[in-house]
């Protein structure tokens, strides 16, 4: 079984500004700080013309996670998010939890209309555990929605400067 999540984030800025923000390590660090992660590191390999690799590694506390899931992740959750931007407006997304049986694969797309830019994150969440995999996928989808809402809040502030 797999769970699909499609989530739109709208920014009041042109696509070029949103793309530049998503490639700025300080923006990614601000998002981690906003989410109160325990530890994080950000690497951006910018190849020019909007092409780049973004890797965000973070460790989050496992607070608020149901007991059936906590026994699989422990007290901390290590998350590695890798984005391969092939153009200014499109990326492949791969998120893993090292040492745990699951991953998220998908895309990020930016589209501008009327001065607004919409970032669409489309991912499939797969947890390879019998019986509880679907429940954990739903939990991960909820956590991802919250993380994307945090990114949007930080992004709106970033773009207003």
What general outline do the C-alpha atoms trace?
globular
Oligomer: single chain
**Measured distance between first and last alpha carbons:** 43 Å
Major sheet: 7 strands, antiparallel
Weakly predicted, low-confidence segments? none
Q: How much helix, percentage-wise, in residues?
A: 25-40%
How many separate domains? Answer: 1
Question: Residue-averaged pLDDT, rounded?
Answer: 91
Enter the CATH topology name: Alpha-D-Glucose-1,6-Bisphosphate, Chain A, domain 4
CATH homology group: START domain
- Please report which band the strand proportion falls in: under 5%, 5-15%, 15-25%, 25-35%, 35-45% or over 45%: over 45%
Going by helix content, strand content and strand pairing, the class is alpha+beta
What Rg do the Cα atoms give? 16 Å
The succession of helices and strands, N to C, reads: EHHEEHEEEEH
| Total of helices | 4
Strand order of the largest sheet: 1-7-6-5-4-3-2
What does the model show?
- The protein has 161 residues and is α+β, with helices and mostly antiparallel strands.
- The chain has one domain: 2-Layer Sandwich (Alpha-D-Glucose-1,6-Bisphosphate, Chain A, domain 4).
- Helix 2 crosses helix 4.
- The longest helix is centred in the C-terminal third of the chain and has 28 residues.
- It is globular and about 45 Å long.
